[in-house]
Structures are given as structure tokens and as C-alpha cells.
Design a protein that fits this description.
152 residues; 8 helices; single chain; mainly alpha
Length: 152
């Protein structure tokens, strides 16, 4: 409960209502891309917002994500977790928590969703002609990953 989070929280509520989650293939990757895309959209609408406020991470937690992006991604890929559909396992990486299971106790909860944000940033960088509206309307999350050419 921080007054500085009110704008991003309000935009988050609007974004998820306007662009609902496509749960046709409900797996960790889909959650990562959807929520990462939502946060990317908020960042485009509120460019001045600090990433710690956007994500609700401490400075140290955000720095952990930046410093360990490649390792977190490799862990998810090597352990075949991107296409995990078991709810309990997905929750361990995607829901708020003191830290993200299997990454480190220094990691923030939802660190996997931050990776989704980085995927969307890569997508925007490699597809500059893609408009925010088009990005938000795309519901094929695997396609977004492929177009992103994400390589931490």
C-alpha cells in the first residue's frame, strides 16, 4: 500500500479488464508473457514510473532480476518449466510471494513474470512497427515469444 503505486495499479486493473488472459494454453510461459505484456503496456502509458513501483520490488530485488536474468531463464528452460500446466507449480513462479521458489531467497516473488516483461521488451525492440494496441490484442503467447527473439 504505497501512494506511488496507485496509478500503476489503476492501469493494471484497466488493462486486465480490457485485454483479458487467453487461458486456452494455460502454462507458465503464457502467464509470463501475458503479465509481462500487461506491465510493459503500463510502462508505455506511465513512462516516468520507477520499475520498483511498477513491480512492487525493492531495489535489491529488482537488481537481483537484472543480475540473474540469464540464469533464471536457463533454469526455466533446462527444467522444462515454460510449458508447465500444473497449477501448483505455475503458482510458485507467478504469484506474489516473499521470493521465487528455486531462484534464491534474494529473488522477488513473481520473478518469472519479470522475465515475461523482458521478453516483451525484446519483442518491441525487434518489431518497432508493432503498435501497442496490436501487442495487447495478440493472444498467441508462443507467437509473441518467437517474435521477440529473446536471448538474455
Amino acid at each position: 500500500m504505497h501512494p506511488g503505486k496507485i496509478p500503476s495499479d489503476a492501469f493494471y486493473g484497466w488493462m486486465v479488464a480490457e485485454f483479458p488472459y487467453n487461458n486456452e494454453k494455460d502454462n507458465l510461459l503464457s502467464q509470463m508473457i501475458y503479465k509481462g505484456r500487461t506491465m510493459y503496456g503500463i510502462k508505455q502509458l506511465l513512462p516516468e514510473i520507477n520499475d520498483t513501483l511498477l513491480w512492487g520490488f525493492s531495489s535489491d530485488q529488482l537488481q537481483f532480476c537484472i543480475d540473474n536474468e540469464k540464469g533464471m531463464w536457463e533454469y526455466l528452460v533446462e527444467n522444462k518449466l515454460l510449458f508447465e500446466t500444473e497449477k501448483f507449480k505455475v503458482i510458485q513462479y507467478a504469484n506474489p510471494a516473499p521470493f521465487t521458489k528455486d531462484f534464491s531467497q534474494e529473488s522477488p516473488g513473481r520473478a518469472a513474470l519479470w522475465l515475461g516483461y523482458r521478453i516483451i521488451e525484446s519483442l518491441a525492440k525487434h518489431n518497432r512497427e508493432l503498435m501497442l494496441q496490436e501487442l495487447m490484442e495478440e493472444s498467441n503467447y508462443q507467437r509473441l515469444l518467437n517474435l521477440s527473439r529473446y536471448n538474455p
